[in-house]
Specification:
The protein is globular. α14 runs antiparallel to α15. The two termini are 16 Å apart. The protein contains 17 helices and 18 strands. β5 and β6 form a beta hairpin. The protein folds into 4 domains: 100 residues, Uridine Diphospho-n-acetylenolpyruvylglucosamine Reductase, domain 2; 118 residues, Uridine Diphospho-n-acetylenolpyruvylglucosamine Reductase, domain 3 (2-Layer Sandwich), CATH 3.30.465; 103 residues, Alpha-Beta Plaits, CATH 3.30.70.3450; 91 residues, GMP Synthetase, Chain A, domain 3 (2-Layer Sandwich), CATH 3.30.300. It has a 7-stranded antiparallel beta sheet with strand order 15-12-14-13-17-18-16, with helices on both faces. With 474 residues, the chain is α+β, with helices and mostly antiparallel strands.
Length: 474
């Protein structure tokens, strides 16, 4: 529950006594900046002067002890706590829909240790992705994650939302890179998970908190697997006549043991109107960008083998410099003029499925939203960007140029139709952007009775239900 207006000053004073005056924000105008992440509905609501949620106070502790103290304080009083990193999430996971305390983690910004022998880094949750990468690169190392939000997102946010980066096909998503965690629990206790992952000392607690979006506890410190900067990155580009041919070619590459770090397969619409404009080249078909990296002889051998597989599937080999331009400009897809702005409506209709079903999911989503919303000017551009031995994911960006007076209702109908199409075709409704409030209404349809198991875990860890309420339908 939100704190009554008459008591907000008392709350702010108590929090200042707890963590210091410089760590507490209670001014209503300043609190507005915490009312949205990058979720479209939150941005639109704030722009219209009616935010989806406002905290009663924002607190930015300087260390883990301060985080634990805030949680203990909130738990004793039954106040909601919403953890927030860089605010880059697209699902509303950091929107304080129940008021209460916004826990800003960005002051937990120390890189604690870099173990160059074990190829591991330990960093506090508020360390920004780009700052961490610069530090590691100076040592000849990298965290092979590289999300599009690297200039905003934090290490804790990477893990809490189960994120992924452009190199995931070779190195895995963030859950594959997490070695251990420190977590502050709702009662103010702090735990540290086993220092190496997936070993036979009982259930894997680390993965319990990965993707939990602050509903089970607040991640305060993370130890992550690193990799050496590759001696070579070789980029290639291939045009396929159709999406199924492209998917078949990539599946065959992975089945043969090839490990590209990047595979970005754009459908025909995205090739023409998304990839082409960013790389400044007119392109047709289903264009695919590959990157192979590592020791030069290995990267070259993998690239040549992959090009041979592409030819077997009817692919036309393009100039590899197209892939290099994509790499240099890969973040431009998510910034104006390539990224929409209000009053447009936009969203990412993201789904993942086994190879046997992914094309059915793709067709189902296109059928559900393209023709039915054509009168609103909806466009849908899809690429397939994270590949696994068993399947892949589709990243479908839809845009409506101007939603008009019924923009929120239109947004919700598009999402409802798209998610039902994904699930109906046998897909999973998300790969790496988290759940937040956007996908919370569909968690029962996705998980079935297993959702009740998650809820029981939540009840044990957070009996007073203070941790990020309204998220994940927990």
């Amino acid at each position: 529950m939100s704190v009554p207006a008459a008591k907000t000053e008392t709350l702010a004073r108590d929090l200042r006594d707890l963590v210091g005056a410089d760590a507490v924000v209670a001014d209503p105008d300043l609190l507005r900046r915490y009312s949205a992440d990058t979720y479209w509905k939150a941005l639109a609501a704030r722009a219209n002067g009616a935010p989806l949620g406002l905290p009663d106070a924002a607190v930015s502790p300087a260390d883990e002890a301060g985080v634990a103290a805030v949680l203990r304080f909130a738990n004793e009083r039954g106040l909601p706590v919403v953890p927030r990193g860089g605010g880059s999430g697209s699902q509303g996971g950091a929107v304080p829909v129940g008021g209460g305390i916004l826990l800003d983690l960005t002051r937990l910004d120390r890189i604690v240790a870099v173990d160059e022998e074990s190829l591991a880094v330990t960093a506090e949750a508020g360390v920004k992705g780009d700052a961490l990468e610069r530090e590691l690169n100076e040592r000849g190392l990298m965290l092979p994650h590289y999300p599009a939000s690297v200039d905003l997102a934090t290490v804790g946010g990477y893990v809490a939302a189960r994120g992924s980066g452009v190199l995931s096909t070779r190195y895995g998503k963030i859950e594959d890179l997490v070695l251990s965690l420190r977590v502050a629990l709702a009662d103010g206790g702090v735990i540290e998970t086993v220092g190496v992952p997936r070993h036979a000392v009982g259930p894997e607690l680390t993965q319990l908190f990965v993707g939990s979006e602050g509903t089970f506890g607040v991640i305060t410190r993370v130890t992550l697997q690193l990799a050496p900067l590759p001696a070579k990155r070789r980029f290639e580009a291939v045009s396929f006549a159709s999406v199924p041919e492209g998917i078949a070619a990539v599946r065959s590459c992975i089945a043969r043991g090839l490990r590209p770090s990047v595979v970005r397969l754009y459908d025909e619409a995205a090739t023409r109107t998304s990839l082409g404009p960013v790389v400044e080249q007119e392109l047709e078909g289903a264009c695919t960008v590959f990157c192979f990296e590592g020791e030069p002889s290995v990267a070259d051998a993998e690239a040549e083998t992959a090009l041979g597989v592409a030819r077997e599937h009817g692919g036309t080999i393009l100039d590899g410099q197209l892939g290099e331009r994509w790499w240099r400009r890969r973040y431009e897809f998510y910034k104006p003029p390539h990224h929409p702005e209000l009053p447009a409506i936009w969203g990412t209709l993201e789904a993942v499925a086994p190879y046997a079903r992914i094309y059915d999911v793709y067709r189902a989503v296109k059928t559900a939203v393209e023709a039915p919303y054509a009168e609103h000017g909806l466009t849908l551009k899809v690429h397939f960007s994270h590949w696994y031995p068993w399947g892949t994911m589709m990243y479908g960006r839809f845009v409506v140029p101007d939603g008009g007076p019924d923009a929120v209702g239109l947004h919700d109908r598009i999402w409802e139709d798209a998610v039902q199409a994904m699930l109906g075709a046998g897909g999973v409704m998300n790969d790496h952007h988290g759940v937040g409030i956007k996908l919370a209404p569909y968690m029962r349809a996705q998980h079935g009775p297993a959702l009740d198991v998650l809820r029981r875990i939540k009840e044990v860890l957070d009996p007073n239900r203070i941790m990020n309420p309204g998220k994940l339908d927990l």
